[in-house]
Write a structure and sequence with these properties.
Number of helices: 6
GO molecular function: acyltransferase activity
Strand order of the largest sheet: 3-4-5
Pfam families: TsaD
Number of domains: 1
Structural class: alpha+beta
Distance between the termini: 14 Å
Enzyme class: transferase
Helix content: 40-55%
Strand content: 15-25%
EC number: 2.3.1.-
Number of strands: 5
Largest sheet: 3 strands, antiparallel
Order of helices and strands: HHEHEHEEEHH
Protein name: tRNA N6-adenosine threonylcarbamoyltransferase
């Protein structure tokens, strides 16, 4: 299925984050010591979404290990910023659905419409899973768009 839209199933994303964090923990610790001079800071996410899965404690431990600061970043805004540049993005998940605008090279953003409806993302995810029960880390929005 070609991925023409962006989005993930939140529960599966959390499981994937945990699996990846746990499987790469020793590598991260080793690399942080080896490239200590190049590390300027560590980051951990703040609400909404996946706070525990992204391991705030891991970020704090790594930043302490290399004697650097640990910064808190907005998880969903970081996903939008990873696009590179966008005038506005709809962040729909099982957590607060928001419209984020003004992402640019400076990573400046403003939440244009905060917390539209917690149920919107759950509705999208549940509909995609009803159509395809084993939907794993695929794009629920893309799947529904193609199924329609």
């Amino acid at each position: 299925m070609p991925l023409r839209h962006s989005g993930v199933v939140p529960e599966l994303a959390a499981q994937s984050h945990l699996h990846q964090a746990n499987s790469r923990l020793s590598t991260a610790v080793c690399c942080s010591v080896l490239v200590q001079a190049a590390i300027t800071s560590a980051a951990c996410t703040v609400s909404p979404a996946l706070g525990a899965a992204v391991e705030v404690s891991l970020s704090l431990a790594l930043s302490s290990l290399v004697n650097r600061r640990c910064s808190a970043v907005d998880h969903t805004a970081a996903h939008v910023a990873a696009i590179g540049w966008a005038m506005a993005a709809l962040v729909a998940s099982g957590y607060p659905t928001r419209v984020i605008g003004g992402i640019g090279a400076q990573c400046f953003f403003a939440t244009l419409l905060p917390q539209l409806d917690d149920a919107m993302g759950e509705c999208i995810d549940n509909a995609a899973r009803a159509i395809k029960p084993n939907l794993a880390m695929h794009c629920s929005l893309a799947y529904i768009a193609e199924a329609a």
